[in-house]
């Protein structure tokens, strides 16, 4: 079996731009959830969201792309640029390296360019003057994937996964499978999503948004906080990375994906789908449950998710569930939907690299039914070797991914 | 490109998984529901394209699904609130499973995967949802409609209806979404992640889709000439929109043989790659893909391709790109026949799933699907174009080939069983 390693990473979310900023904020347990300003907040239960505050100037981005790209596209481009630069495959000043022509791109997306498209539609509907050219083309969820491929000249295999909130995790899984199967040596992979009224109003209508910043696993948790951003990785076959002499950040050991086949929004009460996804991820990784040192939980902070995820972890890990740290970094970056799985995989990589366990930063009051070690409030120094990240999506989609530190 | 590393690993599954068999197809299309209706209509050269009353009473051409009642195919109470696209894809899945004639018991539910491709998903309800949100306010946004707007709603409803709990994925990659879903399904089988996969896709026609294509002047006759749809034709002048869904049952060839299933076609290998394209448009050419496509054929030991099923939709650019590609990847292009089903079913995002189903049926029946509206082959075409009605032919293999706006190319290499 060909091994898959991470040789580059890029990040943008409510905590800031760039991997070093994200790493420092995670360690400091800083919550990036605040006031939503991206669109009119009137009529919603909350104005809380983990919004990206400032999009950096992208001097390297061709103007034709900059003009037509959506907010999700720009998140993806920023993070992919950082990941490819870090992996030594891209330089703003030098000619592109020849290897880029064979690089694959697998992204996870859900809302795509909806933020721009819905505003265009609103203005059409209310007969208001349009601000800009039609954003209908950049609405497609594959737009970010195509733009990343076009801007960086990646002409390897390409696909966009859209499995709601597990999209980013599934994208990483498919990218790893491609490398294992020899379809590509290097794949840019991750997830991107921007806040938009469609999802904000939808979760609002489902009464799934907390009025205050979300509190995963807390007794008083009352729903999620939506977020936005992107995390991108350069995944590479271990042999290819070694031949290039590039620094390896972590290894992708394996993943598992299952369906609840139960309900479009509600998770299965017995958590069987979540347990099976974790089991498959362990089998795929050749790792025993007892080797898992930390779990980055899906931990949306909805009453049901956190309870069922806790139960699923106990079913899988038995007594060990009580012995290892489990946390939800959504307490800091919100629920970034299609980007969530990738952002949380990045949190895992940074935790292993930095020797700390990220906190559930907003957890104040223990819930008697959620009785595991969720690392409340502050991060903790601890060496981690093997970690798992869970991502669950609408429709009953369960994905778990296992990562390992560089020895 | 392909590696057999997973296939050679005996621990990944009980069967040799290097070759994937298509053992069932199901479809809901503008020319018929189910394999028999669809194939008979396609071979007869029938087109589902017809005048549709449009905005302001001006009729325009489109290929709509007709005579389809999803209720016949759906049993689960969980699907009461499912949207029409989801129901259409679920119905196609049911038909495909029936066509695959699994003797009871079915494979274990956790070993059945689902991969659905769709470009716009439930676009009709997305528009309705937004209209309500923007005219009535957030307090009246529909909590019942919202969950149906996620792109993976159809794949989730397929899992609920069939009861399958294996890998469940949704892919979206412009006009190659259907091909990519089927290729991803093959990957799941080869990696040992599923034993049986329902793979395919679908897209629906909505007013906003027509308005979108019209705005970009991509529809037939918008740049002159009469409105019609004739892929590869010298006088083609834009596309006509359609809708539909197709799902295929995939399983390892060895498994299909063991249970005595009828194998419609074998999927030997698949390819996905990028070609340079202007943002959101079809590429002017696809030179970068030529060596990759040649390696796909060489790797499979295919010296001559008998049938190429393209994604051509009667647009100037895409069709020219495909004609050029086919001429350059085949040593003897004149020995191959090129066809596209878009003249019969119109263009819709995941139409590639239906094209792939047609290619499987063509190999099984030994007949070339026609180009039903072809009048004037392009003078410089070196590849033979399919005639206007089906032609019997000994087809050993078929290449499904398509390029999406944005520059993703997808190819599936199919073989007649036993060849």
From the 3D coordinates, which CATH architecture of the largest domain in chain A would you assign? 3-Layer(aba) Sandwich
- Number of beta-strand segments of chain A: 15
The percent range for strand residues of chain A is 15-25%
User: Which consecutive residue ranges of chain B, at least 5 long each, have pLDDT under 50?
Assistant: 1-13
Number of helices of chain B: 12
- What would CATH call the homologous superfamily of the largest domain in chain B? Thiolase/Chalcone synthase
Secondary-structure element pattern of chain A, one letter each: EEHEEHHEHHEHEHEHEHEHHEHHEEEE
CATH H-tier superfamily of the largest domain in chain A: Thiolase/Chalcone synthase
Gross morphology of chain B: globular
Tally of DSSP β-strands of chain B: 16
Q: What is the number of domains of chain A?
A: 2
Q: What is the CATH third-level topology name of the largest domain in chain A?
A: Peroxisomal Thiolase, Chain A, domain 1
Identify the CATH class of the largest domain in chain A.
Answer: Alpha Beta
**Residue runs with pLDDT of under 50 for 5 or more positions of chain A:** none
Structure, described:
The complex is a heterodimer of chains A (407) and B (419). With 407 residues, chain A is α/β, with parallel strands linked by helices. Chain A has 2 domains: 4-250, Peroxisomal Thiolase, Chain A, domain 1; 255-404, Peroxisomal Thiolase, Chain A, domain 1 (3-Layer(aba) Sandwich), CATH 3.40.47. Helix content of chain A is 33%, strand content 19%. Chain A contains 13 helices and 15 strands. In chain A, the strands form 3 sheets. In chain A, strands 1, 2, 5, 6, 7, 8, 9, 10, 11, 14 and 15 form an 11-stranded mixed beta sheet that branches. In chain A, helix 1 packs across helix 13 (340-354) and helix 9 packs across helix 10 (303-317). The longest helix of chain A is centred in the first third of the chain and has 16 residues, at 71-86. Chain A is globular. The two termini of chain A are 19 Å apart. The mean pLDDT of chain A is 96. Chain B is of the alpha/beta class. Chain B folds into 2 domains: 5-258, Thiolase/Chalcone synthase (Peroxisomal Thiolase, Chain A, domain 1, 3-Layer(aba) Sandwich), CATH 3.40.47; 268-415, Thiolase/Chalcone synthase (Peroxisomal Thiolase, Chain A, domain 1). Helices cover 30% and strands 21% of the residues of chain B. Chain B has 12 helices and 16 strands. In chain B, the strands form 3 sheets. In chain B, strands 1, 2, 5, 6, 7, 8, 9, 10, 11, 13, 15 and 16 form a 12-stranded mixed beta sheet that branches. In chain B, strand 10, helix 10 (316-329) and strand 11 (337-339) form a beta-alpha-beta unit. Chain B is globular and about 65 Å long. Residues 1-13 of chain B have low confidence and may be disordered. The interface between A and B is large, with 76 and 79 residues.
């Amino acid at each position: 079996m060909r091994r898959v390693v991470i040789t580059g990473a890029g990040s943008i979310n409510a905590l800031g731009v760039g991997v070093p900023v994200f790493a420092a904020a995670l360690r400091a347990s800083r919550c990036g959830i605040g006031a939503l300003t991206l669109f009119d907040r009137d009529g919603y239960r909350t104005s809380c969201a983990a919004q990206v505050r400032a999009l950096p100037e992208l001097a390297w981005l061709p103007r034709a792309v900059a003009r037509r790209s959506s907010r999700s596209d720009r998140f993806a481009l920023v993070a992919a640029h950082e990941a490819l630069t870090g992996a030594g495959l891209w330089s703003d000043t030098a000619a592109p390296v020849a290897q880029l022509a064979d690089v694959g791109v697998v992204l996870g997306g859900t809302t795509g360019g909806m933020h721009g498209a819905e505003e265009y539609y609103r203005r059409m509907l209310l007969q208001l003057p349009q601000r800009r050219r039609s954003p209908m083309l950049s609405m497609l969820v594959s737009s970010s994937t195509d733009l990343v491929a076009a801007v960086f000249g990646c002409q390897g295999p390409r696909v966009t996964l859209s499995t709601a909130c597990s999209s980013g995790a599934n994208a990483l899984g498919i990218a790893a499978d491609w490398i294992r199967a020899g379809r590509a040596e290097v794949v840019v992979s991750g997830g991107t999503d921007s806040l938009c009224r469609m999802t904000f109003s939808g979760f609002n209508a489902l009464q799934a948004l907390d009025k205050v910043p979300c509190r995963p696993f807390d007794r008083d948790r009352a729903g999620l906080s939506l977020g936005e951003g992107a995390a991108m990785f350069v995944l590479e076959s271990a042999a290819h990375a070694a031949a290039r002499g590039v620094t390896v950040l972590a290894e992708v050991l394996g993943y598992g994906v299952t369906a609840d086949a139960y309900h479009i929004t509600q998770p299965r009460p017995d958590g069987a789908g979540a347990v099976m996804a974790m089991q498959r991820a362990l089998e795929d990784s050749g790792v025993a449950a007892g080797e898992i040192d930390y779990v980055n939980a899906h931990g949306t902070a909805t009453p049901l998710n956190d309870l069922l995820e806790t139960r699923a972890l106990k079913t899988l890990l038995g007594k060990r569930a009580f012995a290892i740290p489990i946390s939800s970094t959504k307490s800091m970056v919100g629920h970034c939907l299609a980007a969530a799985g990738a952002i949380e995989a990045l949190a895992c990589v940074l935790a292993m690299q930095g020797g700390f366990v990220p906190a559930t930063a907003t957890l104040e009051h223990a819930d008697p039914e959620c009785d595991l070690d969720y690392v409340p409030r502050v991060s903790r120094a601890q060496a981690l070797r093997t970690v798992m990240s869970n991502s669950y999506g609408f429709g009953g989609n369960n994905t778990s991914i296992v990562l390992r530190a560089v020895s | 490109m392909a590696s057999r590393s997973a296939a050679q690993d005996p621990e990944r599954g009980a069967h040799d998984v290097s070759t994937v068999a298509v053992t069932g197809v199901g479809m809901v299309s503008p020319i018929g529901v189910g394999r028999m209706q669809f194939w008979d209509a396609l071979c007869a050269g029938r087109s589902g394209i017809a005048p549709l009353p449009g905005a302001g009473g001006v009729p325009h051409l489109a290929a709509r699904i007709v005579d389809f009642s999803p209720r016949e195919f759906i049993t689960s109470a969980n699907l009461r609130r499912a949207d029409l696209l989801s129901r259409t894809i679920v119905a196609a899945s049911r038909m495909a499973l029936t066509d695959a004639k699994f003797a009871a018991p079915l494979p274990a539910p956790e070993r059945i995967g689902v991969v659905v491709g769709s470009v716009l998903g439930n676009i009709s309800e997305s528009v309705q949802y937004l209209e309500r949100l923007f005219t009535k306010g957030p307090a009246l946004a529909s909590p019942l409609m919202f969950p149906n707007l996620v792109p993976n709603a159809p794949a989730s409803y397929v899992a609920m209806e069939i009861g399958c709990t294996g890998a469940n994925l949704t892919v979206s990659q412009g006009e190659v979404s259907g091909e990519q879903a089927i290729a991803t399904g093959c990957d799941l089988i080869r990696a040992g992640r599923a034993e049986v996969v329902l793979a395919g896709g679908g897209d629906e026609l909505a007013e906003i889709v027509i308005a979108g294509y019209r705005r970009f002047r991509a529809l037939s006759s918008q740049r002159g000439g009469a409105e019609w749809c004739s892929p590869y034709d010298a006088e083609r002048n834009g596309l006509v929109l359609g809708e539909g869904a197709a799902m295929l049952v995939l399983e390892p060839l060895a498994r299909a043989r063991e249970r005595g299933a009828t194998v419609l076609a074998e999927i030997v290998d698949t390819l996905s790659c990028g070609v340079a394209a202007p943002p959101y448009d079809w590429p002017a050419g696809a030179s970068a893909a030529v060596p990759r496509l040649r390696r796909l054929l060489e790797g499979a030991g295919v010296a001559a391709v008998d049938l190429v099923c393209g994604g051509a939709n009667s647009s100037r650019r895409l069709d020219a790109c495909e004609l050029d590609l086919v001429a350059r990847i085949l040593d003897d292009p004149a020995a191959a026949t090129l066809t596209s089903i878009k003249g019969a079913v119109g263009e819709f995002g995941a139409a590639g799933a239906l094209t792939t189903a047609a290619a499987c049926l063509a190999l099984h029946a030994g007949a070339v699907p026609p180009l039903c509206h072809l009048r004037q082959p392009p003078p410089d075409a070196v590849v033979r174009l399919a005639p206007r009605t089906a032609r019997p032919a000994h087809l050993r293999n078929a290449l499904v080939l398509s390029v999406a706006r944005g520059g993703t190319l997808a190819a599936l290499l199919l073989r007649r069983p036993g060849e």
